[in-house]
Request: fold
Amino acid sequence: MKKNKKISSLAFTAILGLALSFTACDDNDDDDNNNGTGSGTASVGSTEAAFSQGVLDYSGEYSTGIYLHTIALASSGLTYQEESGTGDLMTFNLYTETSGFESGTYEFTNYSPSAGKADYAVLWVNLNASSWTADHMYRATEGTIMVNKDGASYDISFSLTVLEIDQETYNPVGDPQTLTGNYTGGLTYYDNSGNSSKKLNFSFNRK
Reply:
């Protein structure tokens, strides 16, 4: 399977080097005793994914009065230090009115994001980090993501309409399907608001 030209080393570094830095230590943890581990699942029809770790990345002010946070959930097989491994990965962007992350129900949008909205929700099943190919890739088109933060613990659930993506052409294939799932546990916190080169860029997913 060919690697999409837009998923270059820059995207690989931005996503795996940041969103998958699950086992790396960080001095900017949002809460004490937050080790970024937990448990969760996602399913699309008979296809299932499992998560055991997560990241909350703060990218800063997206536009005036709107702040961007990215959550990434992954299984234990994906490792940051070696930029290798295989496993399941789900990422999504959430937009808030303040720089601090806010609990709430985020409605997915394919249009200009605003506070209380989510976008770029993507699930990779059995992703090979070395080749950036997966058994399945799904991209959301509508739905909701609910996040409740209680100290260092997060309860996340989502119900999304998704399309499977052809990983050679990045065009949708087949009919819309339902993606549901959840995650409970910690999220390792990263503040990358002052480093634009570290911001996650999922622009290749927008059509």
User: Anything to note?
Assistant: The mean pLDDT is 81. The chain has one helix and eleven strands. Helices lie at 9-19.
